[in-house]
Amino acid sequence: MTARRNRPQEIVERALALSRADGCAVVVAERSSADLRWARNALTTNGTARGRAVTVIATVGGGQGTAAGVVSGSAVTADDVEPLVRAAEEAARGAGPADDAQPLVADVPHSPAYAEPPAGTSAAVFDAFAPALGESFARARAEGRELYGYARHQTVTSYLGTSTGLRLRHDQPMGRVELNAKDVRSTGSAWLSRATDAFADVNPRELDAELARRLAWAARGRSELPAGRYPTLLPPAAVADLVCYQQLRADARDAAEGRTVFARPGGGAGPGGRTQEGGGTRQGGRTRVGEKLSGLPLTLRSDPYAPGLECAPFVLTDGSDTRLSVFDSGLPLAATDWIRDGVLERLTAGRHTAALTGLPVAPYTDNLILEAGGARSLDEMVAASGHEGPELLLTSLWYIREVDPATLLVTGLTRDGVLLVRDGEVVGEVNNFRFNESPVDLLSRAVEAGRTERTVPRDLAKICPRAAMPALRVPDFHMSSVSKGV
């Protein structure tokens, strides 16, 4: 006889009841997904999947401080839970005092829908998308293009319960289409991606038409350019890759200890003697909070309730790192300006980091929005380009890696088309490049920001799936070497 699959809420309660630790937090994540994949104008795979992940966090006090043990597994029934609880407790007893130790969060109201079943998805999410995709295959085949890519829709319902009484829930729908087109008559390649919650707002025919337009641009001619600094237009997806990378490194503690680009050289107070909100301790004064980072009125913000970009309104994590602490599980999140009108306002800080640095509590939030009041679309920015000399129009960035944390210098590759713009018109393509840039320095040099729109980074899509960014115009983007890739 098959054991009964317990509801996620039952798993939470069973784990809390079994716990012998001083404190306990339990996260159960119910995942449901539907996928389509295609290559050379034909579907290759499709399917659906479900899964459950359970994380038990045990905290144990001691004479030198509080330790935490974190163990994850795939408990389906109540009988599967006890080994996870005991393993977490053993891990806590064997660990040293945690650097980020704080009392577990308490006094947060229960989520109204906590007792409801988890959300889910199915292949029905593609009922309109799949036939339109088939039509796109036929048109691409007739016009000499090959389409490659995938569409994925996922829902994750997370339940958080703690020994301090928290009972919280968050439903996170996520969808993404990634489409690549290749010209069978040449080496031309074009790429784009779209984020969506339910696929009702994604039309494959429109996506294919945009790819066809880009391939036609590339077919107008190819030029070989050497490495150097070039006036460059970065589309929203490329901006998202760089800005999301910047936000991942915007940790208050690392900055206060002088390890990142957000550390103030030599320490000391901010501009004009400004101290940080909350009193500004000596460590907080070692950061660049209060410093102007851009001449454009850029505002970089996160908001768990941002329309179309909604994310968990409380800290939800299955481990501690520079961004999040398991001790902060359940801590409410609010709208936060990281940069306001070009000035650095906040660095990410949980409760322990905030106490250590004197900076405000501002945990990492799972969406990111960059705004500058720009109204131009990317097409309109292209039309205004190249009148004083050629400019480059990028498609996407790839394989981004950090080179120097002190300046946040990163390196990466352009991919799937670098286009050349003269007198407001795309006149062809050029070779790909390896680039070296610091996102922080890039924002300081940007001379124009376009209209902010929902996008998804290519390289960091799994880490930063909810973003809204403008295109940026940079007068001197650094192409450090020529790349032979496509």
Q: State the total count of DSSP E strands.
A: 20
Strand content: 25-35%
Q: First CA to last CA: what distance?
A: 55 Å
Estimated helix fraction: 10-25%
* Rough outline: globular
Poorly predicted ranges (pLDDT <50, ≥5 residues)?
Answer: 269-282
The assigned structural class equals alpha+beta
Count the DSSP helices: 9
Characterize the structure shown.
- With 486 residues, the chain is of the alpha+beta class.
- Helices cover 19% and strands 35% of the residues.
- The strands form three sheets. Strands 3-2-1-4-5-6 form a six-stranded antiparallel beta sheet. Strands 11-10-9-12-19-18 form a six-stranded mixed beta sheet, covered by helices on one side. Strands 8-13-14-16-20 form a five-stranded mixed beta barrel.
- α1 (8-18) packs across α2 (81-94) and α3 (129-143) runs parallel beside α4.
- 49% of the residues are buried.
Q: Could you list some keywords that capture this structure?
A:
six-stranded antiparallel beta sheet, alpha+beta, 486 residues, 35% strand, 9 helices
